[in-house]
Amino acid sequence: MIESLDDARLAAWRAYIEASQRLYTRLEDDLRADSALSFADYHVLVLLSEAPGQRLRMGELASRLVFSPSRLTYQITTMQRRGLVARESCPDDRRGSEAVLTAAGLLTLREAAPHHLRSVRAHFMDDLDDAEVACLTRIFERLGRRLRADRDASTARPHS
Questions:
Q1: Sheet with 55-57: strands ordered across
Q2: Is-above-0.90 flag for pTM?
Q3: Is there a contact between 98 and 87 (Cβ–Cβ < 8 Å)?
Q4: Is 65 helix (H, G, I), strand (E, B) or coil?
Q5: Which uninterrupted H or E stretch holds 2?
Q6: What's the angle, vertex CA 84, arms to CA 52 and CA 96, rounded to 5?
Q7: In whole numbers, what is the pLDDT of the chain averaged over residues?
Q8: What confidence tens digit (pLDDT) does each residue in 7-63 have?
Q9: Closest to 33 in 3D by CA, of 92, 102, 119
Q10: What is the largest CA-CA distance in the chain?
Q11: What is d(CA 37, CA 43) in angstroms, rounded to the nearest whole number?
């Protein structure tokens, strides 16, 4: 059974969606202007920079992104042409492949990150009204509590 949303919750979700879409558009425009990266490029570079050995299997990368396999293949191929990532065979699975962060990709990420963070701060404070900031803040706080609880639960489990 699907719970119906009352008018107040529906209005809050609509405000969240509209605010996040407006914020995303402005941040995407700033990111492209500063570094010629899209959010998808930036997200892939961040994930690879945080991965052990700065490489991730394509399946693992897909699970962390909201791309279909064909969209991920296209994304990696276009980033590969620009020299931001490389694609290599997995040493432990010849059928699979890994996306690997290149030196150029890491440099691009390091150059883009400060501009992106400034853009996030500027747009979050300047382009959203108080109600939108409050709505997004509640969502992020709730998400943060859930992520911390999940992390704490996973570290508390005994490893066998």
A1: 55-57, 93-101, 85-90
A2: no
A3: yes
A4: coil
A5: none
A6: 55
A7: 82
A8: 777 877 787 788 778 888 888 898 889 888 988 899 899 999 999 999 998 888 888
A9: 119
A10: 54
A11: 10
